[in-house]
Design goal:
Distance between the termini: 43 Å
Number of helices: 0
Bound molecules: zinc ion
Order of helices and strands: EEEEE
Structural class: mainly beta
Helix content: under 10%
Largest sheet: 3 strands, antiparallel
Number of domains: 1
Strand order of the largest sheet: 1-4-5
Number of strands: 5
């Protein structure tokens, strides 16, 4: 969740810009602050279509049970 910076600081993403008071920032997993724009976006190429496993044959759908 993002929030507005209360203090100046350094961006944990090393974007080269300092965090200024009032900037939209977010905490990373290590509790450090970074700009929301610097938050790594999920790579769309690694996000495949959601695989659904059939509860009957345990194969990835679509399977023959759907007919
Ligand atoms: Zn940044
Ligand atoms: Zn099936």
């Amino acid at each position: 969740m993002s929030f507005r910076a209360q203090y100046n600081g350094t961006c944990a993403a090393n974007c080269g810009f300092r965090i200024h008071e009032g900037d939209e920032i977010e905490r990373d997993d290590d509790g450090r602050f970074r700009h929301v724009d610097c938050v790594p976006k999920p790579d769309p190429t690694t996000l495949g279509p959601k695989e659904v496993v059939c509860g009957i044959c345990w194969l990835v759908k679509p399977c023959r049970c759907d007919e």
